[in-house]
Amino acid sequence: MHSGCSLPDEKFARFRLLASRLVRFLLLGLAALARTGARHIRGVRERAVAAAAQAERCAELLRQSQADLAAALHERDQFHEQLRRQGLALEAARAAAEAAYHAKASFMATMSHELRTPLNIIIGFSTAMVEHPEIYEGVPLPPAFVADLREIRRSGEHLLGLINDILDLARVEAGRIELNRDALSLAPLLDEMLRTARGLLKDRPIRVRGEYHGTLPPVLADETRVRQVLLNLVSNACKFTSVGEVILGAHADGPELTIWVRDTGIGIAAADQARIFNHFEQVEDSQLRPYPSTGLGLAISRWLIELHGGRIWLESELGKGSTFYFTLPCTQVADGQEMLQARAVGA
Ligand code: ADP
Asked: Could you tell me if 212 and 248 are in contact, meaning their C-beta atoms sit under 8 angstroms apart?
């Protein structure tokens, strides 16, 4: 007989204790594992939710961008349409301007012919009647007739000059003046101008002389237009000078030639010096300036010189005289600076 538990029972009890501890340990481990798993799953779910929210925001942004793009495309289409309409309007305006220009050009050509032809007849006949009475069988005209005929001729010439100036002005403004540029030797042209000045001044006590070298380098210029500018400056110098000198000069200045027309006439006040280069601008001083004029000569001269790539300007003092300068480009840059030599031409 045994008292208390038998050995197998004891082993069994220990085994149960151990098993129960093992089970508890396993359960605790499983619970910990489950908690970690749950935390992990929660983390994954939260990340998935955040990613979904981010994706939604991206989708929203994309929708917004698509809407913006659609609006921009619409605006672009509208802009294109507007441009197309403006292009059509511009083309129509250009065609209208072109047509108006052609109408004006043909009107001017016709008018200039219509006006110049009878004017040339008036000038031609009045000149012939005054200067060549032999054409009329040598019968001399009474002096009163001659004086009136001279006035008819003078007015005719003035009108012709006016018509030519206005035509030139219109051509320059339309940008349709064409220059026939060529290598031009200035000295012969200046010689010719000195003779013209002497003719214009006739018996007035004014000395006419040149300040230029005979071997000036050639300029690249349109001879007719340079003559026109010189003629305007020389006739102004003669118009506004009653005593002293009228001088024409030129010298080479690097790549250009500087030409000047100087007089000892009435001069131009500083306030008027810039504006006389504008068209129809004259100095308001009818007592000192009794000559009929248009105020176009200097404006046209300035345009013509600028068209050649040159400049025109003046220096003047009221009561003392004026010097008008302009430049023209040389065909080639002179090797050395040319020395200015004063010489009296034809004197
Ligand atoms: P126009 O001589 O036909 O009036 P211009 O344009 O040639 O036109 O000259 C404009 C004005 O400038 C003249 O009316 C005159 O008042 C002034 N002017 C031009 N040249 C001279 C000069 N050499 N001396 C004094 N005044 C001048």
From this structure: yes
Does any ligand 1 atom lie closer than 6 A to the CB of residue 129?
no
CB atoms within 10 A of CB 271: 9
Report the distance separating Cα 256 and Cα 132, nearest Å: 45
Minimum-distance ligand 1 atom for the alpha carbon of 165 = 3
Residue-number span of the structural domain to which 128 is assigned: 104-173
Q: Are residues 156 and 272 in the same domain?
A: no
Please state, in angstroms and rounded to a whole number, the distance separating the CA atoms of residues 157 and 164.
10
Pocket residue to mutate for ligand 1, from 164, 193, 276, most atoms within 8 A of Cβ: 276
Give residue 177 CA to ligand 1 midpoint distance, Å. Answer: 23
Same domain, 262 and 203: yes
Residues 193 and 242 reside in one and the same domain: yes
In a domain, 287, yes or no: yes
Same-domain pairing of 209 and 165? no
Looking at the fold, whether 118 and 222 belong to one and the same domain comes out as: no
Integer-rounded Cα Rg, in Å, for the chain is 50
CATH code of 208's domain: 3.30.565.10
Measure 190 CA to ligand 1 centroid, in angstroms. 20
Give me the tens of pLDDT residue by residue for the chain, a chain 347 residues long.
Answer: 444 556 678 888 988 899 999 999 999 999 999 999 999 999 999 999 999 999 999 999 999 999 999 999 999 999 999 999 999 999 999 999 888 877 877 777 777 778 888 899 999 999 988 888 778 777 778 888 888 999 899 889 888 888 888 777 777 766 667 889 999 999 999 999 999 999 999 889 999 999 998 789 999 999 999 999 999 999 999 999 999 999 999 999 889 999 999 999 999 999 889 888 886 656 665 455 555 566 788 988 998 999 999 999 999 999 999 999 999 999 864 444 443 333 333 33
- Enter the tokens of residue 243: 């005593």
Do the domain assignments include residue 322? yes
Residue 141 belongs to some domain of the structure: yes
How open is the CA angle 214-217-223, to the nearest 5 degrees?
Answer: 90
Q: How many domains does the chain have?
A: 2
